[in-house]
Amino acid sequence: MGAVGTMTGAPAGAGGAGSGAAGAAVAGMGGPLAGAASGAAGAARPAPLRVDAQRNLEHVLRAAREVFGELGYGAPMEDVARRARVGVGTVYRRFPSKDVLVRRIAQEETARLTDQARAALGQEDEPWSALARFLRTSVASGAGRLLPPQVLRVGVDVEEVPAADDARVPRQRGAVPSGSPRTVAPRGVPAAELDGAGVPELLDVVGRLVGRAREAGELRRDVTVGDVLLVIATAAPSLPDAAQQSAASARLLDILLEGLRSRP
């Protein structure tokens, strides 16, 4: 992440004078030795974080997952610092802006969902079972509460078209026959937003799960990848009691799965 790179960059810069002196001394010797030393210095990597700094970073990331999972990405950095039991300055030293921290958490959650989708594809032969397994695993992990916002916007923004009675009602693409007064247009999410968070990989793998279940006649024809990701986000409520939250998530997901299945 850029934030971590910024942190490690400062010590490297501070040591620049010493490195330059050493390089000059070696250069004074002349010959191949100077060139070798110069190449080694150029290939040097930033020093790893100290043990206490690494521990603080882990605390901040864990706290951010909890706080954003409970309150959403709108939660202030002060709440993250308080949960991590560090000063807010420590959080900002690791992540110079809230956007950087949000991007880090979103990337990690996107990668986790992608792994879960791949596991479902590889371990379940039956299309509906694979899709249901992915949804259950993802909801149980709580990843839905931390999905990158741009994922939930893919293909679900609404273009309103007036009906005969001038009613304006949004719908998902393909939900009703052509000619209906309700249509939806996919939103043009900037490519940088999608690529930066690992979203294309997630959409590709989930798309394969959706495609298989649809071709098998087990998934409603109008269900999109965006719908499936929305189910993950919807079925992961944040409740104060862990047991109540688990039971509520399981019950809600059962209802949503029934809504996704095709009917004879």
Give me a quick take on this structure.
Residues 76-95 bind DNA. The protein is 66% helix and 2% strand.
How is the secondary structure organized here?
Blueprint: H1 2-14, H2 16-29, H3 31-43, H4 51-71, H5 77-84, H6 88-94, H7 98-123, H8 127-141, H9 149-153, E1 158-159, E2 183-184, H10 191-196, H11 199-215, H12 225-234, H13 242-260
Antiparallel strand pairs: 1-2
Overall description:
- The protein is an all-alpha fold.
- The protein has 13 helices and 2 strands.
- A two-stranded antiparallel ribbon has the order 1-2.
- Residues 1-42 and 156-194 have low confidence and may be disordered.
- This is HTH tetR-type domain-containing protein.
Q: Report the principal-axis shape.
A: elongated
Mean pLDDT across all amino acids? 73
Number of helices: 13
Structural class: mainly alpha
- Poorly predicted residue ranges: 1-42, 156-194
- Could you give the distance between the termini? 50 Å
**Largest sheet composition:** 2 strands, antiparallel
Order of strands across the main sheet: 1-2
Radius of gyration: 25 Å
- What percentage of the residues does DSSP assign to strands (E)? under 5%
Helix content: 55-70%
How do the SSEs run, as a string of H and E?
HHHHHHHHHEEHHHH
Number of strands: 2
